[in-house]
Amino acid sequence: MTEIACPSDCVYLTAARDHPAAATLRQQQQDYTVFVKALADFNRRQAQLFLAINTVISRYEPPELQAVVDDDVIEAAAALAATYETASRGVIYEHRAATLSAERLGVAIRAMLAEVAGAGGSAFERDVAVVLRRIEQTARTAHASSGGPRAYFKLLDRVLSPRDDAPGAVPSDPGKGAPRLILP
Length: 184
Fold this sequence. Notes:
It contains seven helices and two strands. The protein is mainly alpha-helical. It starts with a strand and ends with a strand.
């Protein structure tokens, strides 16, 4: 095979961008269906919280030698949801996740929530609890449907990561700035 530099207006590259492979298209449809279903009955603040929390989860960098998997997301979301549910009832009690990696992920989520909470009060706590329960449920569903230990993380990467082929997107790798065409 030979790799050649191809201009950005190359008809072959344009066709490949405009018409992705059928498997990629099906995966995108499934991913967006999962997210639309998860956001179905949310109000505006809940939808924003859902996206913000999932962004924190997808960008979370665990300490060295500690992988974070779907079970950690499920545990962290469940523990935080229980904490916010009790707080919305006026009881201050911090529920803890079962694993250290889930607890650390929960701390990262809680830090972001503390920044955006402001004077939200119990209404904010109820919204956060509802959103965290939905994240727990969505992570369980993604994990069960795929079977992989990081299925939810892969879903978040596919849905929340900027795509290189989006209009106005900057390529993620500077070395890949120029389009390439591979010829046999």
